[in-house]
Amino acid sequence: MINSFKASVVFSVFTLLGITSTSANAALLVGNSASDRIIRFDETTGTFLGDFTSPGINGLEDPDDLTFGPDGNLYVSVGGNSGGNILDPLYPTNSAVLRFNPYGQYLGVAAAGNGLTRPYGNAFGPDGNLYVSSFRSNQILKFDGTTGSFLSVFASDNNGGLGSLNGLNGPNGLLFAPDGSLYVTTEGTANRLNGSLGFPYASQVLRYSPEQVLGLAPTTAPTVFIDQPALLPESPGFISLLGLAISPDAQSLYVSDFAGGIRQYDFAGTLLSILSTNYTGTIPSKNFVGSLTFGTDSSDLYAIGFDTRNQNIGSILAFDQTQGSASIFSGDLFTDGSLLRPIGITAVPAAAVPEPATMLGALLGLGGLRTLKRRLKISQGA
């Protein structure tokens, strides 16, 4: 259970000492693209725990990828329009990556401008800088991880956003592997000359080598790590690779398909297994699937989806020890009316939430408890 409260009076030291005997429950954060907010869920029970941010706060519009940075703060890709005409003078100019602290307090813009157009994936590289996929410009942009200053165009489709064979066509998820290489899912999209969006290319997973990441080799020719895979039986007739997650043993890569299914590959690019995400039980599936995350200190895999038959109400899909069927959805399902077309999901790392004892010391060090807003995560019966 999470208790959120605003303290306007001084609490007794005895009350605070009672809190120090409890530990924090693991939590999941989910980004709602239809309600412009980020919400929290208990990782074990799937219980809705309330808002992490207020709807639409500080430009939080169409939140997509959620990433905890090395500083313990949350980075959220927002804004833009994935399907509008980019030549339209009214095309949104609010594309950005926003920064929030572990309690949902807005800390400012972490990345914006310099051609960033409908950001999706964001990830911190081994150099500590923030890499952001710019979906509509077919680029990956690099920003200073501390100041947010623009550093460079890390990679592009080499064709001004019009796409290229086996190129960076509609980049989505970004993930750095332990060896320093960068994996990118592409949707196979490109801009037409009239500014509209087309789907002329394959949806793939591209790999940029550690040498390319470090600037020791040009990024003009990434490796096609996974070419567009075969359609799954639950697919509505297209492939759109989206989320990426590395297994806890760092031996394989999981890839979600917006059209349905999660595929597991080894780092040679060999398909190892498939998990069905067709929780609506229809052929083709009537639910779409967003990002992936592994649980805090666990091998449980979580995905997020939404039901197109039911006003895009969302569900959290949980696969115990990444086990499940390829032909029928066999994971656990947590459906909640607060989930409105969710796309991004991430587990809150333990390091991002101070233990109650640490919080007590910090509060006592203030010399008095001022009005504050806190979210304490208290384990059930632990």
Protein described:
Helices cover 5% and strands 40% of the residues. The chain contains 3 helices and 28 strands. 43% of the residues are buried. It is globular, with a radius of gyration of 21 Å. It is mainly beta and 382 residues long. The strands form 8 sheets. Strands 4-3-2-27 form a 4-stranded antiparallel beta sheet, with no helix packed on it.
Tally of strands: 28
Secondary structure tally, helices: 3
Distance between the termini: 12 Å
Assembly state of the chains shown: single chain
How big is the Rg?
21 Å
Mean pLDDT: 87
**% residues in beta strands:** 35-45%
- Helicity level: under 10%
Query: Reading side by side through the largest sheet, how are the strands ordered?
Result: 4-3-2-27
Shape: globular
Largest sheet: 4 strands, antiparallel
Query: Which consecutive residue ranges, at least 5 long each, have pLDDT under 50?
Result: 1-23, 354-382
Structural class: mainly beta
